[in-house]
Amino acid sequence: MKFSKVVFLILVLNVSYLWGCSPKNLNEATPTNPSWTPLSDSALMDTVQYQTFKYFWDFADPTSGMAYERNTSNVVTTGGSGFGVMAILVGIHRHFITREQGLNRILKIVDFLEKADRFHGAWPHWMDGSTGHVVPFSTYDDGGDLVETSYMIEGLLTAKEFFDGSDSTETSLRNQIQNLYEGVEWDWYQQGGKDVLYWHWSPDYGWKMNMPITGWDEALIVYIEAASSPTHPISASVYDNGWAHGLEFPNGQYTQFENGNIYEGVILPLGPPYGGPLFFSHYSFLGLNPNGLKDKYADYFVQNKNQTLINYTYCINNSNYGSSGDIWGLTASDDPNGYDAHSPTNDNGTITPSAAISAIVYTPQKSLKTMRYFYEHMKSKIWGKYGFYDAFNQQKDWYATSYLAIDEGPIIDMIENYRSGLLWNNFMKNKDIQNGLNKLGFTYETAN
């Protein structure tokens, strides 16, 4: 059984619209309207990116600039804000905002992070956006969260390379970001020198959560950033013996790394049966370019594409999702019963738009077709102020009205990586990251 923080915590718990098309026209667009004209693929992606961008721009916490966990929350989220930093870069690139506007917003975020609570360099999962103080995610999770921290660092290092100007403001931002990265004590999260990294540490409860970051899931980026650190690096043995190694937990649950079996006619190199939720192939790879990324364990583009194809085929062959062939995508999201990590082995009929849309870098035609179906045929039920709502379940006639930062971010960010490689190109040219990848034995592509 796949064991990740999502599953564990479930158990214990304004700018005008661009390209000459007005928001009014977009809201009226429908296939049943005689005057309706289908959007081109480019215009469709523009529309989805722009609407999603507004979650991180219009709805950001006014004091910190950070992203709220969800649209009904008053706490800011570290990982989702890291995805949001990258969304701001997309906003600059797509001319939703100016470079100066984006720079000022990221400066606000960085200034906040410098003063926020840190635990041996790691930020907590949730914080108060006004004070920077930790807001407990669960009873014992009231300290550092290394995985959430890694997503923030992923966004910040991408921004560091993007803002490459010689003026004092951009130079200062780069220095601030480097200092934040160097302040994360990755090696300390080995819990006294063990050959594995641990997810949490609390000043009140110590290592009580006791969650090794091991086996294939969403956390590859943690080990790469840890190995790349110029101040608190881990050795390659921690990656090999900790991450790339299945581990049994005291409660009998087991994390699986290597797989090699065939599901839905597709071989799966790594991970649990049927691949798990699709966020495994998204979160680490918003900055980390899977194209050409290989080590002794896997070709990571093949890994992610094959997991996506298994997820796709499972849904398309499932009559519960209709006969259109366009409704698919299982990942962690809200659902009729609360929140769950949906996958082919944990399926209650809930589809998350972020899953299929964020997979566009692996299955472009399938993802574009589904994005179009969602927008043209289901828009009245699943589209709102910040783009696609979090999830829906047609079997139960349930449609979310929620937005979650960790689902919104991959939509805008992965669409941009498909279109221009913007985030991949900037993250992968970071010299510290290149050093870490070399240290761990990866081969990889960098921007031309």
**Total number of β-strand segments?**
14
So what's the CATH class?
Mainly Alpha
Taking all Cα atoms into account, the compactness measure Rg is 21 Å
Please state how the strands of the largest beta sheet are arranged side by side.
1-2
Share in helix: 40-55%
Q: Which residues form runs of ≥5 with pLDDT under 50?
A: 7-28
Give an overview of the whole structure.
With 448 residues, this protein is mainly alpha-helical. It has a single domain, classed as Glycoside hydrolase 144 (GH144) (Glycosyltransferase). The protein is 41% helix and 9% strand. The chain is built from 16 helices and 14 strands. The chain has helices at 5-11, 23-28, 41-57, 78-93, 99-115, 146-162, 168-182, 220-228, 236-243, 300-316, 353-358, 364-377, 379-382, 405-419, 422-428, 431-439, and strands at 76-77, 126-127, 144-145, 200-201, 247-248, 254-255, 258-263, 266-270, 332-335, 338-341, 383-384, 387-388, 392-393, 398-399. It has a two-stranded antiparallel ribbon with strand order 1-2. β5 (247-248) and β6 (254-255) form a beta hairpin. The longest helix is centred in the first third of the chain and has 17 residues, at 41-57. It is globular. The N and C termini lie far apart (41 Å). Residues 7-28 have low confidence and may be disordered.
Give structural attributes:
448 residues, mainly alpha, Glycosyltransferase, 14 strands, 9% strand, globular
Helix and strand topology:
Blueprint: H1 5-11, H2 23-28, H3 41-57, E1 76-77, H4 78-93, H5 99-115, E2 126-127, E3 144-145, H6 146-162, H7 168-182, E4 200-201, H8 220-228, H9 236-243, E5 247-248, E6 254-255, E7 258-263, E8 266-270, H10 300-316, E9 332-335, E10 338-341, H11 353-358, H12 364-377, H13 379-382, E11 383-384, E12 387-388, E13 392-393, E14 398-399, H14 405-419, H15 422-428, H16 431-439
Helix pairs in contact: 3-4, 3-14, 4-5, 4-6, 4-14, 5-7, 6-7, 6-15, 8-9, 8-16
